[in-house]
Design brief:
Layout (H helix, E strand, L loop, with lengths): L1 H24 L8 H25 L8 H7 L30
Helix pairs in contact: 1-2
Length: about 100
Amino acid sequence: MIKIIIVLLLLYIVFNLFRALFVMMSAKEHSKPMSHYLGRRVLFSGVVLIIIIAALKLGLIQTNPSPIHKATARTQIQINTATPHLQSANTKQLPEKQSAYHS
């Protein structure tokens, strides 16, 4: 129910934003000023934020779990199943050794 209310308020905010756009584009003097609709948009944006914060604190809605906590909570254990061998960080290929004496 709370999510439906939030979505409806967000739609009303977008509606007021477009009404302000149409007032700005038209040159009518008898209509309400553009700041009236923009003020409504700001007011209802604040109301939406207050509703979301209150719903989170009251436990009516839950946030998605953070991926950061899951990534740091896991530890990877490597089991040595292969025989150890020397590795080199050098990526250059070694020159071929050639004998001065050709057979």
